[in-house]
Amino acid sequence: MAGQRAQWKGFIKFGEVAAGVALYTAASTSDRITFNTINKATGNRVNRVFVDSETEELVEKEHQTKGFEIDNGHYIIIDPDEVAAAIPESNKTLEIEAFIPCSDVDDVYFDKPYYLTPDKMGSDAFVALRDGMRKSKVAAIARAVLFRRMRTVLIRPHGKGLIATTLNYDYEVRSSKKAFEEMPKIKVDAEMLELAKHIISTKKGDFDPATFDDRYEAALEEMVKAKIEGKAMPKRKKVEASKPNDLLAALRESAGMMKATDKPKRTAANANAGASRQRATRGAAKSTSSKTAQQRKAS
Q: Where are the stretches annotated Disordered (predicted)?
C-alpha cells in the first residue's frame, strides 16, 4: 500500500503452500481531534510524571520497572528482560489451522482489522488462497505471534486482497448472561409490536459507511472553532426517554410520520460533501489556532 508502512511482514501458510504477506492497519483514529491537559492558572501544558506512592518522590525512567501485585501493596518485581523472554518466539508465519463458514464467529470476538496483501513474492499462492476461499464461501482461522503476543486471526477475502481481524480470547469476552440478567420479563402489547414492526419496515436500508457522520467529532470541531472565534455555542435540545404511558402514543405518531417519501435519501455524495465541510472546518480551526499562538508569542 503506497505511502503506508506495513505493521508486520511474514508468510501465510495453508497446507504445504506458503506466500509472502504484509499486514497494514485498516482502521485508524489519528484524524480525531485530541486535547492536551493544561494548567488553568498558567495556560501551560501539563507533563505526566511518576511519583512513589509512599515517599511521594519523583521516580526517573531508569528506576521504573514492572511489578505484579501478590498482596495488598506487596509486589514481585518483573524485569523487562524477563517479560521479553516470556514472549513466544515468532516464526513470522500465519499458520492456517482451519477453514470455517464466515458466519461461525460471533463479532463480539472481533478485535482489530488489518489489510493482508501479497508481499511481492508468492502472489500466485496468495491469489489462489483468496479466490479459493471466496468460491468456497469460507474464512480461515490462523495463529501467529503479532505485536509481541500470540494471536488468533480470522482471515476473509476482501476486495483484491484479504482482511485479517485479530480475535479476542474467550476469557477476554464477558458473558452476555451477566449483562442481561436484570432484564425484566415484559409481554409487549400486540399493537405496540405491530407498530414497531411497521416503523422498522419503513426504515430499512443498506449498509453504506460513507453515509455515516461522526457527529461527536463534528461537534468537537464546531466547539473548537467557536471558542477560537469567541462565539457562543448553540444549545442542544435535550432528548428524553419515552415514558411507559406515552410509549404507545409515540409509536403511533412515529408510524404515521415515517413514510419512505417523507425523508430524502442520503447518498454517499451528500456524505462526502459533509466530510469535506468537516475537513475545511478543522483546517480553519487549526489555522486560526496557529495564528493565535503566534500572536501570543509576539506579545
A: 253-299
